[in-house]
Amino acid sequence: MSEIATKEPAAPSGTRVPGVFRAALRRDLLLAFRNRRDLVNPLVFFLMVATLFPLGVSPESGFLAELAPGLVWVAALLSTLLSMDSLFRADYEDGTLEQALLSPQPLMLIVLARVLAHWVMTGLPLTLMAPLLGVMLFLPAEGMGGLVLSLLLGTPTLSLIGAIGAALTVGLRKGGMLISLLVLPLYIPVLIFGSAAVQAAVTGLPLAGYLALLGAILALGLVLAPLAIAAALRISVSG
C-alpha cells in the first residue's frame, strides 16, 4: 500500500497514473492469491448449482437444455454476488482503505484496480468454467460460443455494479444481504441480455445485438461505476 499512498513529485502525472493503477492491481492480485478460499467459494457454488438443479427438478436432457442459458447466467450472477461482501472489508478493518482515501492518488484508479482484480479472480474463472456447466446441463454445442462471449462481457459489469453495493455497505457488520437488495435490480438487464444471447446462439439467430448491448452496458459501467464506488467509499468511511 506504500506504493499507492506515497506521492512521487518527481514523476510527471502522465506516468504516475498508470504506475498507481499497476501497483494497486498487483497488490490486490497478491492478496487474492493468498486468500484462496475466497477464490474457490464462488466456483464451488457455481458448480453446485449446476449439479443439484437436475436432481431437484428433472434430469431430462431436453428440459435441462431449454433452461441451461438462464440457469448458467443466474448461477454466475449469484456466485459473483457471493464474493462481493469481502471486496473492501479487509482494507476497511485494517485501515488501508482510510489511507487510500487520504492519499493524493486518484481513488477511482485504486477502486478500478480492485474491481479488475476481483473479476480476474472470480468472473474470469466462472467464464472459463461455464462450458463445463453447459455440457452438464445438455446445452447444445451451438450455444457454447454465445455463452462464453456473453459471460466475458457481462461478468465485468456484475463486478462493477456489485462493487458499488460493497462500497455502500463496507461499514456495516452484516452487509451481505443489503448488498443483494441494492444491486440485484441493477443486475436484471445484464441477466436478460446475457441469457438471451445464449438462447439466440442455440436457435441460430443473430446474437451480435445482444453482445453489443452487453458491451455498451460494460462501457457505461467502466465510466460511471468507479465514480460511484469512490463516492460510496468516502460516504461509508466518513460516516
From TrEMBL:
Signal peptide: none annotated. Pfam families: CcmB. Its main location: membrane. It is a multi-pass membrane protein. The keyword Transmembrane applies. It is found in: Cell inner membrane. The chain crosses the membrane at residues 39-57, 63-82, 116-141, 147-170, 177-202, 208-233. InterPro entries: Cyt_c_biogenesis_CcmB, Cyt_c_CcmB_bac. Keywords: Cell inner membrane, Cell membrane, Cytochrome c-type biogenesis, Membrane, Transmembrane, Transmembrane helix, Transport. Required for the export of heme to the periplasm for the biogenesis of c-type cytochromes. Belongs to the CcmB/CycW/HelB family. This is Heme exporter protein B. The gene is ccmB.
